[in-house]
Predict the structure.
Amino acid sequence: MRQTQSGFSQRFVFRMLAAIFIAVCPGQIEQSRAEDWPQFLGPDRNGISKETGLLDSWGDAGPDELWRIPGGVGMSAVAVKDGLACTMIQTKREQQLLGFDAATGTKKWTAAIAPNYRNQMGNGPRGTPLLTADAAFVFTGEGVLARVNLKDGSLDWKVVTLNRHPGAVMDYGMACSPVLWGTAVIVTVGARQATVVAFDQKTGETLWTAGRAGSAGYSSPAVLQAGGQEQLVVFAGAAAFGVDSAGKELWRYGYVTDYDCNIATPLSIDGSVLISAGENHGTTLLNLKPGGSGFDTSVAWASTGTGSMLRNEWQTSILLDGYLYGFDNVGSAGPVTHLTCVRAKTGERIWREPRFGKGNMIAADGKLFATTMKGELVVMQASPNGFQELGRKKVIGTTRQAPSLANGRLYIRDDAEIVCFDVRRQ
């Protein structure tokens, strides 16, 4: 009986002390949050994860490396869902979808999609897989769209999009990452009678097309809330435009860039649409006002030409708490790139880190996680108060892909390897 009373007393005292600690020091109790990264630019296709409890700094050794596996040539990022990770690679013979265990890197299967693709601006597939509960949708360098069964890597269907909708492969390859909207999987193809095409995700049949006589460009479309309406915003080679879920064009705004190099994904800023391009072009925020059977566009602000303060070459800026964090590439695809912070509503520059270098980045837990062309992983504080680097480490070869973040793990790849780091706060 004494042991029982003693044990009860100890548990009671412990619970009382814990309750007092939580009441007095609530900031010391932190609930971390994790989520998947099932497509290009993450869960909401804006480069932002809602994960919390991530590291604030690291020592000279860098973040903890969990595993490193062979990969292959390509510009595809890693997508993660329900413990499975996927990326597109190229072997000597073919473009493949590689499926592997997200926690261990153990290969599950490979799916052959199309013959290998070669291009003067880099070989292999460009687009990032889109993962659903049971399938992956992939788009190859020459425009083959395919659905792959996630259980075993078998091919459900594939469509040579530019045969079904006649057109030409872009000079630097087809770079769109598929997006899901309702029952449709959508890609930008730049066919003569179909700038963008929606395919039935179950069968691969064409549901609708939109846009005429416009090149695909290299951007990936996004489903945005814009002008008070959910719509698909497409940033094609020479224009941005919005369409409804039936493929009806709602508005169009010309945006001509050298070599049709519109690459960044459009963003929604309080119902307005932000588009940005390199090649000495710049950034424009478009207001959408209902008019006629669609919307009229007007410029909220623009910073364009050689004096622009934000020229996203192939990176999509990150919108956090009213500020844009982005890469400003100087010149016509030149080597000088600044990292900058801009007030999203006005275009006012807040700070700039000169000659940061070409790279790509995502955001989570108040931080920016960037990769550079030198193969570095850089973690920075996401703050309008100035540039604050938390850690930098060379971890991989030359890469253009932004990292992917899922369940406390950061995934990075180059043309040879895929690497996974533990970025949880210890």
User: Anything to note?
Assistant: Helices lie at 2-24, 161-164.
